[in-house]
Structures are given as structure tokens and as C-alpha cells.
Amino acid sequence: MESSSSMGIEQPMNTVKKTIYPRGIEHDLISCHCCTLVMRHSATGQFSCPRCHTALTQRKPNSIQYCWAYTLTAIIMYIPANLLPIMTVSYLGDTKSDTIMSGVIYLASHGMWPLALVIFIASVFIPLLKIGALVLLMVSVQKKSLLYKLQRTKLYRMTELVGKWSMVDVFVVALLVALVQFGEIASIQPGVGALAFSVVVIMTMLAAESFDARLIWDAKQ
Amino acid sequence: MMQNEHLENIPEAIVSPDKSKFSFVWILPVLAGILGLWLMMKTLSETGPVITLQFKTAIGLVAGKTKIRYRDIDVGDVLSISFTDDLSKVIVKIQMNPVVGKSLNQQSQFWVVRPRINSSQVSGLNTLISGAYIAVDPGKDGQTENSFIGLEEPPSVTSDTQGTIFHLKSDGLGSLSVGSPVYFRQIEVGEVVSYKLSDNYEAINIAVIVRPPHDQFIYKDTRFWNIGGFDLALDAQGINLEVESLTSLLSGGISFVTPASVSSNQKVPEKHYFHLYKNLKQSQEKPIMQHFPYVLYFNDTVRGLAVGAPVELRGIRVGTVQEISMERDNNTGLLRIPVMVEIEPERVPTAELNNHQQRGEVDVGLIIMDQLVKEGLRARLQTGNFLTGKLFVELDFFPDDEKQTISYQGQYPELPTIPNALSGIANNLNGLLTKLNSLPIEALGGNLLKSSVALKTLLESKNWLNMVESLGQITKQASQLVATLNKDIPPVINKLDQGVGHASEVFANVNQQLPILVKNLATTLTVAQSTLIKAETALISANRLMSNEGEVGTKLQQTLDELSAAARSIRVMADYLERHPEALLQGKER
Q1: CB within 8 Å: B32 and A73
Q2: CA-based, 20 to 30 A from B300: which of A88, B117, B522, B572?
Q3: Considering all CA atoms of chain A, what is the largest pairwise distance in Å, rounded to the nearest integer?
Q4: Same domain, yes or no: A38 and A99
């Protein structure tokens, strides 16, 4: 066991800590999520804690599979989310449908750069970033890459963190639809794009949730 | 190594059977894929053809904002607005909705709906707020087309307009315009769709649409007439003002009715042109087919006689004045006025005429006229209306007039005329005034004066005084008589008293009543006396009145003065009337 792990220097760039610590999985050890009992288990698959009978897994089951499914859904939905109108504004009988990008362009062309930037980052950039990050993480895990394990872990943490903020757009639409209902004078209706966009956000959040960051460290040479 | 020691006591985990590795989570991307595909298909299917429209201006049209609407549903968007190559028109590029887009064809009409206010209607007010939009009428069928020329005005007939289009022919447009209402018994049932000059520029063809179910009331014999504005007729019939409705006053209009007398309700043939009558009255007149022209020669003024004035026989219209001119009589060298009239025998359908007509004898009217003239038929000018001074030609029988016949020497047969009734009056009046003028009014006044002097002398004469004296004597005698009676009655009473001792009761009664009687008698006499005194006073007053300084004398003088003033006025009026006889009717010209 020692020999196998001695070969895998985790962070070649990190010159401070070169010590190789033992990992539970390498010693067929696992701790219960509930009562933290450390137990011995070598096989994969379903098992449970002998003390508290909590169902346990060494790693999140089918993590990569789930993550891919969610990410793919997100990628597919990202297309209509950007192409279809996110909301329809009727103002004095004049109806105007806006997609995310047309809204950003509208704001930018009217000099509201900060707002345009916020919407662009929250609605276009961050979902894309999340999807890209997830794809990168999954590919790297599946290829059992040994490179940049710490950076990838940080990337994952960031992806998880940023996830909740990408709902900003959906919240804006929800608020406007609820507030601006003045009949003939002005009203706002949500578009199909808003639905697709919220699906994208939820899917990326689920994908990030289902990804098991420990898989990054499981890669052995 | 302590850690390792502890690790020796680690329990084993409970292993449960493994589960399938396949996860249902893959349903999600599949669903997303299906959804994405569906959205794509939907978007693709919602994209119709791109068409181009040409307008003169792009007032109110905004690229990306203006909508295309059909039955108030958005069916397209304006993509861009640009110019034609020669900058003469505006090209509007439109992304159509596929449903309407695919049914566009050559008959499709496009027009811009914007606020419009004209005399007959106000439309498109909702676009004041929302902005203009382009309305489309896809039309029924035709070749597919994707380049159109937009209409500048909303069409009055669209493909879904129900109703029948009828064609009218009119001499002039009047106050009609596209959109003018068509009324049937004052209910609006349609409108004017279009109008244009006929091919030979002689009339105007007007197309009207009549909506169901009213279009079924239109038959071949239906009469259409113009109700535009108001109809003020000032003719021999008097003043006639007709106004249909306020709307039609402003924007004109057409009304129609099918005469009840028409028995055969024939359907309107294809391409049938109805005649649009100028007014209701014209539409009600029977079409006159037969005209017999006659010429009438008048020597006096025809002022007030107009072309179109009626020719009446005892108040029934039998013809129309057609032409009035002036010419010099070749024989006498005098000016005379030939008035062309047309006798229209159909106006007075008589059994005789009908019989003749059915036998095909067209000139029967002429024969009848000849006969009538022999019986004394004459034409003369007559005032139809004293207020307006309009004249008409009156035909009437004057058996006393010298015998005349219709002269067929000129271009037209000549009907004998007699002088105007009015000018007859004027002549008579003139004569009357002349006579009045020649009256010896001054002598008359002198006579009157003499009479009053004689009266005065009479009153002042001895005889009169004698008469008054005699009256006094009579009174005196009467009072003597009464006195005598007064004296005589007591003896009578005494005698009665003595003689009729038995009838003392009766006598007593008499005795009772007598004093009253006597008293009454005394009263009567007093009254008679005062009456006589009054008579004396009256006579004195009469004497004073009759004198020259008295009231009667003065009044008489005044009366005579006024009479002479009146005579002077009459002379002036007679002079004026001689010069202006028409002033009798029209008053003095100012």
C-alpha cells in the first residue's frame, strides 16, 4: 500500500509538502457519515454501518454518470435559454420580446454598462463557466489525470459556490412578472427562455452536487 | 504504530447486494433533447415567409416594433424599412406568421391602421397609444405572391365583407365619397365602395355595397337616390327643404327603395347599372318616354319662369318647360318670348290614351291636343307661388276666347296663349288707379264744404228757431193739459164718491191707490220736463257742433286733407307700378 501511494506525488508543484499520507480507501477503511464509526470494507457497491445501519458508499454512486446526464441536459437547454425570449413586455399595446442577449445589448446600448455586465456575467458567463468546469472535471476524472488535483478541487468548490448566483436572472423575471401587471398599460409575461434558463441553472447545480470531488484524488498512476 | 493497533479492531461493514449501475438520470438529457427539438421545430414552424410591402410613407411604422395584424391578432413583424431604388417609395420587409403567410396571394391587401378622422367616421383611435400597425386582408384566392403594394386608405371591402355590390350611374358625384352610407328606410345598410368616371367620361360609376339581409330587397326596379346634403327646392311648388340625416348632410349618402307598385320583382341582372337620382322626388317620378314639344309665345315678362317649371292643366302636371329664349317676330317686328314646353301625356294616363297607345298610334296625343285647343285650351303664365314669384305655365279652357288652332308652321307646333293672369291684374289695377286719379277730389271737397255751410245755415235759420219754439209751445200745452186734468179730477172723484156709495170698499181701495197714481203722474211730468230741458241743451250743443269752429267741422277738414294725401300716394304708387309692375309681388327694389 505504501509503495503504491509513494509513487503518486500528489502535487509536484507543491514543494513544501511532499509527504504521502495514507488514504482510507487505500486501506479499505471507511467512516460512517452518520456516527463516524470507522469500519473495514474492501468491495465497492452498497453496504451499511454495523453500528447505526446508515447506508454507505465509498464514493457517490454513479457520480460521473449522473453528472454527465445533468450537464448534458444543461448544455441542451442552454441553447433555447439563449435563443428564446426570456420575457415579453407589453407597454401600452406595444409588445416586445427580449432574449437574454438582446436585453444585455439593449442595456449596453443605453449606457447601462454595469447592469449589462452583471446580467451578462450572471446569465451567460457563469452558466457557461459552470458547464465548462464540470465537463473539464469529469473528463479529467475519467482520464484519471494526475495533474493539477488541488486546482481542480478548487475549481470544483468554486463551481459549487457560484451555482446559487446564476439564478439571478430567473429571480428578476419572476419579480417583474409578479410586479408589472397593469392590464392594458403595461404587463410582463415570462417567456419560454426563462423556463429553459432555470432548467439550465438547476441542472448545473445538480451536476455539481452529484460530482464526487474525491474522484479527483482517486487517480493513480 | 498506535494507530495501526487500533485499526486492527475496525469492524467490517455490512454488505448489501449491488444494484444496477444504470441510472434513470439519463432520462433528463433525453427529455431535454426532445424538448429542445420540439422548441426548434416550433420556432421553425412559426416562421412564415418574408414579404415586402410598398408604401408611400412609413408614418408610424417602426422596424422591429410595428406588428402586422389580421382580425386584431398579430400575424407578423416589421423586420426593416428601407427605400426603393429611386427613393420614391418605402419598402417594408415583414416576417409573416406561417398561417396567414401561406395564404397571402395576389388579392391580399395591406394598409396602415392609424387614427383617421373624416366626416363619416373616426377610426383607429386605439393606435393613438399603441402606435400604428399594418392590417392585412389575406384575400380569398389567387396566385401566391410575396411582394405587395400597400393601400394608402383602408379598403372598404375586404375579403370577409359580406354583402352585394351594386353599380350606380350618376351625372355627378355630389357630396358622395368612399364610405358614404347607403340607407334603406333610414337604416344604414351599406356604403359607397368606389367611384370612377365611366369610360366615355359622361357619367360617374359608383359602386356600393349593401350588407345582407338588406341586399335581397334590391331588385331591377329599385330606385336609388342621393340624399347628400340638403335639398332646398324653390320652385313653383313653394319652398321645399329636405334633410335626411346629419351624417348624410356632412358626408353625403344614398338611399334606395323598391317601389311597391312594381309587381315583377326581377333579380338584378349582372352588370346592371342603376340610375342614381338626384333626390327622392326625381326617383319617384315615372320615367317619361313620350314628349310632345310645343312652343308658346308670350309678349309679357317671363321673369320667374324657369326651365323645368311645370306645365299644369287644372293643377295636374302634364309637362315641363324646356327652353326659354327671345326672338323678334318676323311679321310684326315685335320682341316675343318663345317658351318651349314638352307635354308629357304619360303623366296623365287616361284610358283613351292607353287604348290608342296599345294600338300603336303614337301621335294620338297631337290629335287630342288639336281637339282640346279647338275647345278653348289656352296657355298662360301663372304665378305658382306669390312668395317666390315663380311662374308656371297653366293650360286651361277659355271658351270665350276667339277661336284658334294649333299652328304647325314653325319648327314646333304653336299653342295659342292668352295674357298672363297677373299682367291682367296689373292692367286692371292700372286702369283703376287712372280712374282714381281722374276723380274730382277737389270738387268733391268743395261740395262737402258747401254742404256743411248749408247745414249751418239751416241750423241758424228762422225755421229752425220756430221749430224749437213750437216744441216749447207743445210742452207748455202739455203742462196746461196736465194742470186741467189736475183741476178736473177732484170733482170726478167727488162724483164717484157720491155716486158709488155702495161700492165703498172698492172706492176705498181706489182711494187708497189714487194718491200713488197721482204721485206717479207728478213724477212722470217732472221727468218729461227735465227731458225737454235736455232736448233744449242738445239742440244748443248741436248748433255749436255744426258751426265752423266746432269739432265736426275740424274733423271734416282733416279727413279731406288725408283723402287728398291718399290720392297723392296712390298716384305715386300707380306711377311706380307702371314702371315696375313686378313690384306688386316683389316689393320695391333696393
Answers
A1: yes
A2: B572
A3: 76
A4: no
CB atoms inside a 10 Å sphere around CB B559: 12
Interface residue of A33, A48, A77 to substitute, partner B, most B CBs within 10 Å: A77
* Total structural domains within chain B: 4
Nearest CA distance, B108 vs chain A (angstrom): 25
Q: What is the mean pLDDT of chain B?
A: 79
Of A56, A78, A97, the residue that ends a domain is A56
Smallest CA–CA separation between B73 and chain A, in Å?
12
Parallel, antiparallel, or unpaired for β B181-184 and B254-257?
parallel
Q: What is the pTM of this model?
A: 0.46
Contacts of B331-335 with CB under 8 Å at 24 or more apart are B334/B299
List, for residues B447-480, the tens digit of each pLDDT value. Answer: 888 888 888 887 777 777 788 788 889 889 988 9
Does residue A176 sit in the same domain as residue A210?
Answer: yes
Segment B262-268 shows an average pLDDT of 64
Cβ within 8 Å of residue B321, ≥6 positions away = B305, B306, B307, B308, B309, B310, B311, B339, B340, B341, B392, B393
pLDDT in tens, B476-501: 998 898 888 888 887 777 776 676 66
CA distance A72 to chain B (A): 6
Question: Domain range spanning residue A73?
Answer: 63-218
- The answer to whether residues B415 and B296 belong to one domain is yes
Question: Could you give the CA distance from residue A218 to residue B2 in angstroms, rounded to a whole number?
Answer: 26
How many structural domains is chain A composed of?
A: 2
User: Which one is predicted more confidently, B140 or B73?
Assistant: B73
Residue from B3, B9, B10 whose CB has the most chain A CBs within 10 Å, to mutate? B10
Question: What are A's interface residues with B at a Cβ cutoff of 8 A?
Answer: 27, 29-30, 37-41, 43-51, 53, 55-56, 62, 65-66, 69-70, 72-73, 76-77, 79-80, 83-84, 92-96, 192, 196, 199, 203, 210
* pLDDT given at position B563: 92
**Would you say residue A191 has pLDDT above 80?**
yes
B449, B560: one domain: yes
Do B119 and B195 belong together in one domain?
A: no
Instruction: Please check whether residues B190 and B244 belong to one and the same domain.
Output: yes
* Contact between residue B275 and residue B169 where contact means Cβ atoms under 8 Å apart: yes
Residues A52 and A127 in one domain: no
Q: How much is the average pLDDT of B378-403?
A: 80
Instruction: Tell me how far CA of residue B202 lies from CA of B171, B172, B198, B241, in angstroms.
Output: 7, 9, 6, 29
Residue B67 lies in a domain: yes
Expressed as residue numbers, the domain containing B336 is 292-419
In this predicted model, what pLDDT tens digit does every residue of B270-282 receive, in sequence order? 778 888 887 777 7
Identify the domain boundary among A56, A80, A102.
Answer: A56
Segment B331-374, tens digit of pLDDT: 777 888 888 888 876 666 666 666 665 565 556 667 777 778 88
pLDDT reading at B6 higher than 70: no
Domain boundary among B105, B122, B149: B149
pLDDT digits (tens, 9 = 90+) for B420-451: 766 667 777 888 888 888 877 788 888 888 88
* Gap between the Cα atoms of B299 and B418, Å rounded: 10
Which of B111-115, B397-401, B547-551 tops mean pLDDT?
B111-115
Contact B30, A59 (CB under 8 A): no
CA distance A114 to A118: 6
Query: Does the pLDDT of residue A8 top 50, yes or no?
Result: no
Q: Enter the ipTM.
A: 0.70
Find which of B19, B28, B127 to mutate to test the A interface (most A CBs within 10 Å of its CB): B28
Considering the domain architecture, whether residues B114 and B137 belong to the same structural domain is answered as yes
Within-domain flag for B28: no
The label of the residue with cell 439571478 reads A168
- If asked whether residues B358 and B414 sit together in one domain, one would say yes
Is residue B399 located within the same domain as residue B466? no
Same domain, A14 and A93: no
